[in-house]
């Protein structure tokens, strides 16, 4: 998981840094030249320039910090531990100095810090230096990924990866900067400001369309390369995560279409007809809103892309795809397991035994029952009425057993035998992730108990719910059970099922966020997102399998 | 469906402008919270028929315009997120998550010698692995232990020295073995691939008793 989040942070930071400099060099400066404006004569241009500088600095700094942490996490992982299990600084130094991946990481950190430093300098020449350095950082990014580890056709894979990152920066990176400068944009109600904004959008639209096309082509080529067979889309963790990424692209494309077909012509029309500033504001606000939709979905796409960078693709081996018996087991619902196996029978075994896997099914099935009940509570709440009021009071209490169950039962070592000390829990990635899941659920319970203070439409949990749902789902998408005791086949089955959990949760959290922000029709989303939570619960209850 | 959603939210260009011209900030009620939820809370109901689209646009645009004039909507978005307890908890969880180590991505074993669950008449002198990704050298480990020593605190490792990546084929890893006696052996390996991810694996083989 940490790799997923750290990859996402590095990717997002690089995209923001590269997107900012592309906005300035490819769009902003030519627009200035075309309209013959100087920064001093147009306050809007000046404010946009300073906003882009600030966020390029922050993006590069964020990516640099994530890259530093990633080096330590990589070294901890070599010893099969988490960062909290302890890292030998000498090993970190040896890793950074002697391995290709380590040297590239150090180079990338240095380049990102240089971007952060230069972006805060005054003047315009800096942007060309930042562009060169940011491109070098993107090259480094593409040299530390699946593509770089391919034994055959490595160069073409790296070139595709680099093009994909550059295209994402051109599209999403620029959009992020436009959203971050939303206040500046909304203040551009004077003639010069409006004309300048219109010119920026006029220049950005064809670039955006082109880069979307490029993203689609490179994405398709990369997917074909990594997945090999279409069936892998549904039968591998990589394919499922890729599907989540593509589904998050839909709102992004939708908002882009609205911007292109409605907002952009309207802004140009307003500029040409000399519309009163007070009448331009709603348009600018609407532009801000569609930008928000685009960027929210875009950030999630980048995050899922980060998760993808740490998920093994099935490639031609096919070992990371579900086998026919596994597929049959998943699509044949069973009642939740009721036979509790004594963990003493299997803890410490050389390989995961049947009892061990039955135990895992038992914990997942009953967690699913609790999740489904919770989703039902939220669905009834969304429907309103007297039942809704009752559900509003009841759901936090319905939720209480879940974190307790996860904390106590998720890992047999923690439950009865208590062979794990706190230090061991912190050092073992699998146990730590389960315990973190319990902490997240406890947070939700705590917030649920003070939910009555919120305005009606923001219940349950306001913005906290989608934030935690999205974080928790990313945890599930990147959740791994790779260890000595599980076979590759079983590990893949577990990872695929966790990817399904993550997909349900991420889509539910995203829809809830869109509903709260007023970016999607609330009538549809308020029913869909609790239904997705129920769907997640039902899948866990009736379909989760490790025995087949 | 798409056309309906599109019209519901944005209407046509003319309708947007028409709605905007009606949205006088002074006439709009004091609002807070997400856009159209506020509009509904304040009694703005969408009529049926042709007037619906422009009314919906008005209901959605006016509150947003007003709230964007008075405060940064993003601040409002994070009103609950930024409360101290939640921020503390989320930061804690986030920091912990960043420190955990369990990437799904890893080099997959294509073949090995001796193969998994092999029964050998002669004890092997080395163990070799072939993976589907390029490997980094110097950070790979291979332990070959007797199955009966699995629970021991310090089992004897029969692997001799550090495993080496073949410089001609960087997917190939090999390690020499000390002399093995008859018995069942467990080989546990952990390899670092060129994308920076490290992952474990296990295989077993048995050395049979030599026939007299």
Characterise this structure.
- The complex is a heterodimer of chains A (548) and B (212).
- Helices cover 76% and strands 0% of the residues of chain A.
- Chain A has 548 residues and is mostly helical.
- Chain A starts with a helix and ends in a 6-residue tail after the last helix.
- By secondary structure, chain B is an alpha+beta fold.
- Chain B has helices at 2-9, 13-22, 35-41, 51-70, 73-77, 84-99; strands spanning 109-113, 118-120, 126-131, 141-146, 159-165, 172-177, 183-192, 198-207.
- In chain B, the strands form 2 sheets. Chain B has a 4-stranded antiparallel beta sheet with strand order 1-3-6-5, with no helix packed on it. A 4-stranded mixed beta sheet of chain B has the order 2-8-7-4, with no helix packed on it.
- In chain B, strand 5 (159-165) and strand 6 form a beta hairpin.
- In chain B, helix 2 (13-22) packs across helix 4 and helix 3 (35-41) crosses helix 4 (51-70).
- The radius of gyration of chain B is 34 Å and the shape is globular.
- Classes of the chains: A mainly alpha (548), B alpha+beta (212).
- At the A-B interface, helix 1, helix 2, helix 3, helix 4 and helix 7 of A face helix 1, helix 2, helix 3, helix 4 and helix 6 of B.
Helix content range of chain A: over 70%
Q: Summarize the helix and strand pattern of chain B as letters.
A: HHHHHHEEEEEEEE
The overall pLDDT of chain A, averaged over residues, is 84
Straight-line N-to-C gap of chain A: 27 Å
Question: Beta-strand percentage of chain B?
Answer: 25-35%
Question: Could you give the order of the helices and strands of chain A?
Answer: HHHHHHHHHHHHHHHHHHHHH
Radius of gyration of chain B: 34 Å
Number of strands of chain A: 0
Uncertain stretches of chain A: none
Tell me the overall shape of chain A. globular
Q: Biggest β-sheet of chain B, characterized? A: 4 strands, antiparallel
Tally of DSSP helical segments of chain A: 21
| Fraction in helix of chain B | 25-40%
């Amino acid at each position: 998981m940490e790799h997923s989040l750290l990859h996402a942070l590095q990717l997002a930071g690089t995209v923001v840094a590269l997107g900012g400099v592309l906005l300035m060099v490819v769009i902003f400066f030519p627009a200035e030249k075309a309209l013959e404006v100087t920064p001093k004569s147009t306050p809007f241009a000046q404010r946009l320039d300073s906003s882009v500088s600030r966020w390029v600095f922050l993006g590069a700094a964020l990516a640099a910090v994530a890259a530093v942490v990633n080096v330590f996490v990589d070294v901890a992982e070599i010893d099969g531990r988490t960062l909290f299990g302890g890292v030998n600084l000498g090993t970190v130094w040896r890793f950074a100095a002697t391995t290709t991946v380590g040297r590239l990481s150090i180079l990338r950190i240095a380049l990102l810090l240089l971007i952060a430093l230069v972006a805060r300098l005054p003047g315009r020449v800096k942007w060309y230096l930042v562009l060169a350095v940011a491109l070098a950082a993107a090259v480094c990014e593409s040299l530390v990924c699946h593509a770089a580890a391919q034994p055959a056709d490595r160069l073409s894979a790296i070139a595709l990866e680099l093009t994909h990152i550059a295209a994402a920066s051109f599209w999403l990176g620029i959009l992020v900067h436009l959203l971050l400068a939303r206040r500046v944009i909304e203040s551009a109600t004077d003639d010069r400001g409006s004309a300048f904004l219109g010119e920026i959008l006029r220049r950005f639209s064809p670039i955006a369309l082109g880069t979307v096309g490029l993203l689609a082509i490179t994405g398709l080529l990369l997917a074909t390369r990594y997945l090999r067979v279409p069936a892998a889309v549904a039968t591998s963790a990589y394919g499922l995560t890729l599907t989540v990424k593509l589904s998050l692209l839909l709102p992004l494309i939708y908002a882009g279409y609205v911007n292109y077909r409605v907002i952009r012509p309207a802004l140009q029309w307003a500029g040409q007809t000399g519309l009163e500033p007070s009448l331009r504001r709603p348009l600018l606000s609407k532009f801000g809103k569609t930008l928000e939709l685009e960027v929210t979905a875009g950030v999630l796409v980048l995050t899922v892309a980060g998760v993808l960078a740490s998920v093994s693709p099935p490639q031609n081996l096919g070992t990371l795809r579900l086998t026919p018996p596994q597929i049959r087991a998943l699509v044949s619902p069973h009642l939740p397991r009721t036979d509790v196996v004594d963990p003493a029978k299997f803890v410490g075994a050389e390989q995961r035994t049947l009892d061990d896997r039955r135990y895992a099914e038992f914990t997942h099935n009953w967690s699913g029952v609790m999740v489904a009940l919770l989703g039902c509570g939220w669905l009834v709440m969304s429907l309103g009425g007297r039942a809704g009021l009752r559900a509003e009071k009841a759901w936090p209490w319905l939720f209480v057993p879940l974190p307790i169950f996860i904390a106590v039962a998720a890992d047999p070592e923690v439950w009865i035998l208590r062979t794990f000390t706190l230090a061991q829990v912190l050092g073992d990635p699998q146990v730590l992730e389960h315990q973190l899941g319990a902490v997240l659920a406890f947070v939700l319970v705590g917030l649920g108990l003070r939910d009555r203070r919120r305005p009606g439409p923001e219940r349950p949990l306001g913005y906290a719910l989608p934030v935690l749902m999205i974080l928790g789902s990313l945890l599930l998408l990147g959740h791994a059970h790779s260890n000595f005791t599980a076979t590759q086949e079983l590990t893949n089955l577990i990872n695929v099922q966790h990817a399904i959990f993550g997909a349900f949760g991420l889509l539910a959290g995203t829809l809830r966020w869109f509903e709260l922000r007023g970016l999607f029709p609330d009538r549809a989303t308020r029913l869909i997102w609790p239904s997705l939570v129920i769907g997640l619960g039902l899948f866990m209850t009736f379909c989760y399998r490790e025995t087949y | 469906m798409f056309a309906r959603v599109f019209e519901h939210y944005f209407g046509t260009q003319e309708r947007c402008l028409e709605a905007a011209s009606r949205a006088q900030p002074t006439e709009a009620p004091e609002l807070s919270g997400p856009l159209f939820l506020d509009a509904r809370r304040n009694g703005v109901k969408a009529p049926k028929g042709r007037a619906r689209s422009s009314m919906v646009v008005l209901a959605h645009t006016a509150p947003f315009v007003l709230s964007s004039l008075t405060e940064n909507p993003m601040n409002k978005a994070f009103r609950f997120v930024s409360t101290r307890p939640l921020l503390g908890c989320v930061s804690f969880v986030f920091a912990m998550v960043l420190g955990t180590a369990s990437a799904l991505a890893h080099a997959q074993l294509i073949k090995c010698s001796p193969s998994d669950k092999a029964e050998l008449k002669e004890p092997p002198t080395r163990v070799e692995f072939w993976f589907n990704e390029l490997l980094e050298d110097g950070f790979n480990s291979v332990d070959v232990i007797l199955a009966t020593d699995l629970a021991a605190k310090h089992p004897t490792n029969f692997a001799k020295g550090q495993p080496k990546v073949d410089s001609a084929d960087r997917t190939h890893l090999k390690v020499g073995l000390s002399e093995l006696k008859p018995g069942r052996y467990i080989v546990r390996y952990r390899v670092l691939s060129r994308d920076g991810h490290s992952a474990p694996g296990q295989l077993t083989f048995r050395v049979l008793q030599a026939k007299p």
